[in-house]
Design brief:
Elements lengths: L21 E12 L9 E13 L11 E12 L2 E10 L19 E5 L4
Antiparallel strand pairs: 1-2, 2-3, 3-4, 4-5
């Protein structure tokens, strides 16, 4: 999971995403050979489960606020470097709350990644 730290400001009409001073991230991934690829070790299929959240410095870390998703993907170690395509589905998407000004989750189901993650 490549987490983007974002938390809306108190302004209900034009939220300003300021990021987070703290973050919690959990990742689990299972990697296997791509079916039908034969001896090609550069093409792999993976499944994953990700969870995480970004908090402001003054906010306590609450595990019940974690945003989580699961999905599948394809990894290819190309001559240019590793390429990854993944498709994810949110487990507990958050909807907008007009009373508190809380923003709904912005869901990104497809992701493309070049290179390795740190």
């Amino acid at each position: 999971m490549n987490s983007a730290a974002a938390s809306p400001s108190a302004n209900n009409f034009n939220p300003v995403y300021t990021g987070g001073a703290k973050k919690v991230v959990f990742n689990a991934e299972m990697i296997g050979p791509f079916p039908g690829a034969g001896n090609d070790k550069t093409l792999r299929l993976f499944g994953f489960l990700d969870a995480g959240y970004a908090y402001r410095a003054q906010d306590p870390v609450r595990l019940n606020e974690l945003r989580s998703s699961y999905g599948i993907g394809l990894s290819w170690i190309s001559p240019m470097g590793p390429l990854r395509f993944s498709y994810a589905v949110p487990i507990n998407p958050r909807s907008a709350d007009p009373v508190t000004g809380r923003q709904a989750d912005r869901i990104q189901k497809l992701q493309f990644q070049i290179g390795t993650s740190f």
